[in-house]
Design a protein that fits this description.
The chain has about 100 residues and is mainly α. Helix content is about 35%, strand content about 5%. It has a single domain (about 5-90), classed as Orthogonal Bundle (Arc Repressor Mutant, subunit A), CATH 1.10.10.1100. The protein binds FE2/S2 (inorganic) cluster. FE2/S2 (inorganic) cluster binds near residues 12, 49 and 51.
């Protein structure tokens, strides 16, 4: 049995999501990028989607016939309040 070559094309390297993963979801009727994000975690890696989100938008446009401008990017969610690097590394939050 031959392997689908789309399984070797990594779209989201942070979360190891392939072109086949994305196209299979679109073939199932899931064309909303927010839903694809929730199902695959694209855009949630360390690069925050700088690499994968434009690629996924392109795939959605190609497979659905939509224009790229018609596809809305996922909402960006910022932290409620700034978090210091010390807290992220397990240090003390009282820096003042
Ligand atoms: S490549 Fe997808 S979140 Fe980094």
């Amino acid at each position: 049995m031959s392997e689908d070559p789309r399984e070797k094309i990594i779209i989201c390297r942070c979360n190891d999501v392939t072109q086949k993963d994305i196209e299979d979801l679109i073939d199932q009727g899931i064309t909303d990028i927010e839903e694809i994000k929730r199902l695959t975690r694209i855009g949630m890696g360390p690069c925050q989607g700088r690499t994968c989100l434009p690629l996924v938008v392109g795939i959605i446009a190609r497979k659905t016939g939509k224009k790229i401008e018609e596809i809305q990017l996922p909402a960006t969610r910022v932290p409620i309040r700034p978090v210091s690097m010390g807290v992220l590394t397990g240090g003390d939050d009282d820096e003042e």
